[in-house]
Write a structure and sequence with these properties.
single chain, 217 residues
Length: 217
């Protein structure tokens, strides 16, 4: 839910924040440059993190950082309106209408779709192990989708710097049993593998699901 709210707040407020950053720093250009520099650097870090599968171990912080490239784009669009070149201004206006329209439509009429998309990246279960491994479980699909399953991610962190993590394995399962409940997870440290299982009782029948994720030693 926090992830969903973070995206909605970004869609609703970033166009306004972008304008205010220009308006309120009109006479403080140095401060404006510093703020913009921080935003663009953090946006670059966000994109690099997505490409390399590096992130922080604080989910809420990750989602805030992920929205920063959108804010950086908004700033660039508002920048066009403070330029003397007419072509740049007109191009900026057209781009702003398109971007802002899509953003506000997604945050209002299309809010359900945003929820479905964000839901597929929202961790449902997270387990930390003493050797620095982090098990993450995310549900895929929803009640009206034509697929349902789970995404399992195994990340690693550093004991003396538990703020940073990176993904070492990701695996998806498209199975009703895997989707419908939280999986039972057992980590076999000597073999360096995760044992996953699920059980479902339906009327007079019992169904079982299991898999083993082996990591390189």
């Amino acid at each position: 839910m926090n992830e969903f709210l973070t995206i909605l707040i970004a869609l609703w407020t970033y166009p306004i924040i972008g304008f205010l950053l220009f308006k309120l720093t009109k006479k403080r250009i140095g401060l404006r440059k510093m703020i913009f520099k921080v935003i663009f650097i953090m946006s670059g870090i966000a994109i690099l993190g997505l490409l390399t599968k590096f992130s922080t171990t604080i989910t809420e912080l990750d989602w805030i950082i992920i929205t920063l490239p959108f804010l950086a784009g908004i700033i660039l669009l508002w920048w066009t309106q403070f330029q003397k070149n007419r072509i740049i201004k007109i191009t900026g206006i057209i781009a702003m209408v398109l971007v802002f329209s899509v953003g506000y439509f997604s945050g209002t009429v299309g809010i359900l779709g945003v929820g479905f998309v964000v839901g597929e990246f929202e961790t449902n279960n997270e387990i930390w192990f003493d050797n620095g491994l982090i098990y993450k479980e995310t549900s895929l699909g929803n009640a009206i989708s034509d697929y349902r399953g789970k995404r399992i991610e195994i990340n690693r962190t550093i004991k003396w710097l538990p703020l940073i993590e990176w993904q070492i394995l990701s695996k998806e399962y498209f199975d009703f049993l895997a989707y419908g409940q939280q999986l039972n997870v057992v980590y076999d440290k000597p073999k360096n593998e995760f044992l996953l299982s699920a059980k479902e009782q339906l009327q007079d029948s019992t169904y079982y699901w299991n898999d083993t994720i082996r990591l390189e030693k």
